[in-house]
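call fold(seq) -> C-alpha cells
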Amino acid sequence: MRKKLLGAITASLFALSPLAAAEVQFNGFASIVSGIDLDDDDADERYNSRTIDNLQQSRVALQWSADIEKGIRFVGQTMARGDAGSGFSLNYDWAYFDFNIGASAKLKVGRLRIPFYKYSDYLDVGYAYHWITPPRAMYSLSFSNVDGFGYQQNFQNGALEHSLNVVFGTYQGDLILGGVDTPSSLENLLAVNWSAAFNNHEFYAAYARADVYIPATAAISLSALTSAPNDVLVNGDYGHFFGLGYVGTFGDIGIFSEYSQVGIDDSILTDSSGGYLSASYTMDNYTYHITYEFQENEGKTFTAANTGAAGPAQLAGLNANAKALGGRGNHGTANTITIGARKDLGASTALKLDLSLYTEDKFQSAAATSETEETATVITFAIETMF
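ret:
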C-alpha cells in the first residue's frame, strides 16, 4: 500500500502543468555508511565484530518545497533510514506550511524539527558537519520531530545577529527504553532555541519541556503497581531538556562544543547529562578532527516507602527494571574519543573516515550488582552528498 501511495504521489508531481512544476523545487541528500566494531563485547550496539554493516547509519532523503502564493510555502521531506533488521524504513520527517511575517519572521504549521541542538535543522545531512555521526553523548534523544506550530524570528542588535526559534506541539511515537521501542507520547511540548552570532563566533541556548506519557505495562512491566505514585509511573510527568553550545572559527581551525541535561522528574527513568568538545583543522580539501564526548547517567533506586511495592520480590523487580531502563552506563559514565578525516570532492560530496574509542565505566545491566567496564573500537567510512 505504501509503494502504491508513493507511486501515485510521484505520478501526480510529474503530471503538474509546466507553470506549477516550475514553482516546485526538489533537493536531497544521501549517506552510505559502513562500519565494524573491532572489539568483541558489543559495547557499541550499532555494529558487531563479524562483518561490515552498511545499514546502521545509511540514509537517503528527498525534500521538496512549493511556493503556493506570495509569502506562503509548503515544505516536505521523506527519508529512508537503514536498519539492520528491516532494511530501509521510510518516514516523513517534515511536512509543514510556512507563512512569512514581515521581512524576517516565519510561522510554521505541521510536522517540524524540534530545535534541540546546534545541528537540529540539518541533523541527518552528513555533508553539513565533519563527523560521520554527530556525537551521541549530546545527540542522544531518539526523536526529533513534533506535530504543531513554530515561530522563527531573525533580528540584529548592533554587531550581534540573533535567531529565535520556538516550537509547540505533540510527539506521538516510539521512545527507546532499555533498547526497546516503546509507543509513547509527549504532550504540550514547548521548545525554545536562541542563538547569537558575532563575526566567526556563534552561541546558542535551548530549553524544552513536555508532559511525558509512557504505558507502564508496555515499558516497564509495572501493571501490578497501579496505585504507585508518580515517582514510578510515567503518566504526565514533567520532562525537560537544557542545552548550550558554541562554534568558533580561527582561520583554518574550528572549535565546536555542546552540553545538555535531560530528565523526567518523579519517574523511574534515568536522568542524564553529556556533551562534547571537538576541534578541526582544514587544509585545502581535507579536514582533520578530534572529538571528546562524555556522558553521565544517574540511575534511580526505589524503596517500599516511595513505590507502594507489595513486597521484597516486587521491589527487587522494580529496581531491576530501573537499571534496564537506564540502558548502557546506568549509574555511571561513558566517554568516546573520535579521530577522523574528511575529503571534499567538489562542492557537494565528501568522503569521511572516523575511528572511535568508546569506554563505559560503572556499567550495570538489569542483573548486574557490581561495576564493570566495556569498550568498543569502531571504524566507520562514509560517502555523503547533497543534490
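DSSP finds four helices and 16 strands in the chain.
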